[in-house]
Write a structure and sequence with these properties.
CATH superfamily: Winged helix-like DNA-binding domain superfamily/Winged helix DNA-binding domain
Number of helices: 5
Largest sheet: 3 strands, antiparallel
Shape: globular
Distance between the termini: 40 Å
Length: 112
């Protein structure tokens, strides 16, 4: 027991809350996993990987991940435009956490 009272605490002040704020959402964890496995990844490759994500949703999610410093967007001066996404150093450090989720899922997945 740590002696603290729940009435004096706020979940939003925890590191866990902060981490969840970075990876929560329908596509963020999937995008991060995709980049961990296949980087660099182009926008259209990502869209195909996700299956049914609307372009606007994917674009917005990628912008949020970039804003949070987890991914980098590299645009090449070509016609048509070529854009690739990769994990930043900060993004790579988060992969340790997501990799543990993968391990847990593999070890605890029901066998059919």
């Amino acid at each position: 027991m740590n002696g603290r009272k729940i009435s004096e605490e706020k979940f939003s002040d925890t590191g866990y809350s902060y981490t969840l704020s970075l990876i929560s959402g329908k596509y963020k964890p999937i995008i991060l996993y995709c980049l961990m496995e296949y980087e660099p990844v182009r926008f259209n490759e990502m869209r195909r990987y996700l299956g049914n994500a609307a372009d606007k949703t994917l674009s917005q999610t990628l912008k949020e991940l970039e804003r949070d410093g987890l991914i980098n967007r590299k645009m090449y001066p070509e016609i048509p435009p070529k854009v690739e996404y990769i994990l930043t150093k900060r993004g790579h450090s988060l992969m340790k956490v997501l990799d543990q989720l993968c391990t847990w899922g593999t070890e605890n997945r029901p066998i059919e």
